[in-house]
Amino acid sequence: MIKSIWLFLLLSTLLLIACNSKNEVLSELPLVESKGLKYISPFPFGASLGINLLKTKVVYRNVVTKEFNSITAENAMKFGALHPSENTYFWTEADYLVSFAKNLGIRVHGHTLIWHNSLPLWITNFQGDAIAWENLFKAHIQTVVTHFKGSVVSWDVVNEAFNDDGTLRNTIWQQHLGNDYVARAFQYAHEADPDALLFYNEYGHEYSSAKRTAVNNMVSDFKTRGIPIHGLGLQMHTNHIQSDANLITAINTAALTGLKIHISELDISLNKDNNQSLTLTDALAVLQAAKYKVIVKAFAALPATQRYGITTWNVGDADSWIRGTYNRPDWPLPFDDNYNPKPAYQGILDGLK
Ligand code: XIL
Fold it and tell me: For residue 48, how far is its CA from the centre of ligand 1 (angstroms)?
């Protein structure tokens, strides 16, 4: 009997110690209090948004309203979404986003005029000569830019035109329009809205020096030829293993062009190796926060005129494209599944200090 009482006491003490140490770890990660990134950041801070989420989820809408002063459509302004058949444009969803932004008095960045993905079937099946291709390319760019003129202040004109080795990507556009299609896309967009800021958007600057070089060479070439370009978008779909040095080099190398820099699709994956049984631990959340801080700090150090802003790719972890696209558990964003700020959010605040 006495023995079992001792055993009971011993076990309860061990349990208490275990609970306390857990509390200690958790207390290192307090809930983040903030008045909203848009009030704290000296440059625009934003997110890409899903229109359905915006329409149907009050908590989502509230977080967006509180935090951001720049928004991008995650999908609603892509070719397939806006221009589903040759003679049909579908504006409803994108217009909803624009009027949401207008009501709040915040900025809308357009994504994306020309890309090799999210294309409608009528484009992938299109049969026509070089002139027919040029006409539809120009018409799409100019119809979209004209529709949003005055509301969408900047555009990702071309998205992901390079391979990681720095060569031009072999896309449907490149095949039918030739290597100089990127420059012509910028010219057509500029004709339609001379006030719009035009960006070239790309991923991989943080791991491919060949890509960084290719992008900067393209900018030099555009400047020499008088092709209008105002900014570079760095998607920054990165992960917590990426080195600080690479992240900083990506930002600083792009800034050497003198153009405006937009971290345009930021998210930091915690599960790049696709571990199906991974769970989110405090340790991982803290590593992620540190990477957010590094990126934000490097960006904040750029000259003010070059800081176009930082945009995360959607808002909460449950909305992230990473889970669906790579079919794995992951937590890449500054807000959790319930839209509570994560340590990553604190990392952003620390980077802004
Ligand atoms: C992604 C969206 O997040 C997904 O919802 C969609 O199914 C596919 O496109 N680079 C880009 C973005 O430039 O447009 C992509 O967005 C993510 C990668």
Answer: 10
The protein residue whose alpha carbon is closest to atom 1 in ligand 1 is 321
Total domain count, the chain: 1
pLDDT in tens for each of the 353 residues of the chain?
Answer: 455 555 554 445 444 444 444 333 434 577 788 899 999 999 999 999 999 999 999 999 999 999 999 999 999 999 999 999 999 999 999 999 999 999 999 999 999 999 999 999 999 999 999 999 999 999 999 999 999 999 999 999 999 999 999 999 999 999 999 999 999 999 999 999 999 999 999 999 999 999 999 999 999 999 999 999 999 999 999 999 999 999 999 999 999 999 999 999 999 999 999 999 999 999 999 999 999 999 999 999 999 999 999 999 999 999 999 999 999 999 999 999 999 999 999 999 999 99
- What atom in ligand 1 is closest to the CA of residue 320? 3
Name the catalytic one among 93, 202, 206, 265: 265
Helices H / strands E in the chain, number of each: 15, 9
Given 74, 160, 202, 206, which residue is catalytic?
Answer: 160
Residue 299 is assigned to a structural domain of this protein: yes
45-49 and 307-312 beta bridge pairing: parallel
pTM above 0.85, yes or no: yes
Which range of residues forms the domain containing residue 178?
38-352
Spacing, Cα 317 to ligand 1 middle (Å)? 15
Residue 287 belongs to some domain of the structure: yes
In the annotation, is 33 catalytic? no
CATH of the domain at 242: 3.20.20.80
| 118: Cβ contacts below 8 Å, ≥ 6 apart | 75, 78, 79, 80, 81
How many Å separate Cα 82 from the centre of its chain?
Answer: 20
Which of 48, 75, 319, when mutated, tests ligand 1's pocket best, judged by the most ligand atoms within 8 Å of its CB? 75
38 contacts 69 by C-beta, under 8 angstroms: yes
265 is catalytic: yes
Considering the domain boundaries, does residue 131 fall inside one? yes
Cα–Cα distance measured from residue 117 to residue 210, given in angstroms and rounded to the nearest whole number: 22
25 assigned to some structural domain? no
